[in-house]
Amino acid sequence: MARRGWVTFVRPAMVTLTRRGWYTMSGVSSQHFSDYQLLVLTHDSVWYDRLIKSFPNWNRLRFYGWDYTTGPKVEIGKDAFEQIQDDLDRDLGVEAGQKLGRYLEWCLQVLNQNFQAQVPFKILNEYTLNELFVPFKKRVKDKLRATHKLFLQLDNFEEQTGFRNFCMHYKDGQYTSDEVQQIFNSWKEIEAILTCSSCNRFATYDSATGFVKCRCSSLDLKDNEYY
């Protein structure tokens, strides 16, 4: 419960805000509204997911409907990882794989941008998972070397990226929940390396200095512990 009896309404209505300004908004929220209740109105699942992950200690409720008899319909708000794990716990491997694939395609676009990787331009912004994964892996190798812990994890993960096609289209021999769980666990290990435990942000390559750090500099991927 918020210490102040106020509710702050935030509506990220514009694409420029939801896609590019969530870092700024989350920073402002944590600095000035940490003891408020925030009601966020958005249809952007990506922005919603990143906001949740920015504040892992906050209580989260998701309003998903309204009924004149019972009032608002509420459930615990969950980020993408929690939703995927829920599907796996219920033996819904294909559904979990679909969510994981969509999440990875978004996540790899962010990581490619952070690392300034060379990804062929497509006017419709439609990429396969492999088209996003390969440039990122190459960029990590170029900037952090092939002996880096992150590159080694990516190298092991590459052979598993085919799950995306199997989970999106009907094919004989669908992935089981256990198989998707292994792929999911592998990616979580990769993302754990890339994410700062202090600011909850991905590492970014700085072309001026050559550093690969998060914004608060608590995470430095060129530290010796990664080799």
Please give a handful of descriptors for the protein shown:
single chain, mainly alpha, two-stranded parallel ribbon, two-stranded antiparallel ribbon, 9 helices, 6 strands
Amino- and carboxy-terminal Cα gap = 44 Å
List segments where confidence is low: pLDDT < 50 over at least 5 consecutive residues: none
Neighbour order of strands in the largest sheet:
1-2
- Which bin fits the share of residues in helices? 40-55%
Q: Report strand %.
A: 5-15%
Oligomer state of the chains in this structure? single chain
Mean of residue pLDDT values: 84
Number of helices: 9
> Biggest sheet: strands, sense, closure?
2 strands, parallel
Overall SS class: mainly alpha
SSE ordering: EHHEHEEHHHHHHEE
How does this structure look, described?
This protein is mainly α. The chain contains 9 helices and 6 strands. The protein has helices at 15-20, 22-32, 45-54, 80-89, 93-114, 129-144, 149-158, 163-168, 177-194, and strands spanning 7-10, 37-40, 61-67, 71-76, 204-205, 212-213. A two-stranded parallel sheet has the order 1-2. A two-stranded antiparallel ribbon has the order 3-4. Strands 5-6 form a two-stranded antiparallel ribbon. A hairpin with a 3-residue loop joins strand 3 and strand 4 (71-76). Helix 4 (80-89) packs antiparallel against helix 5. The longest helix has 22 residues, at 93-114. The protein is globular.
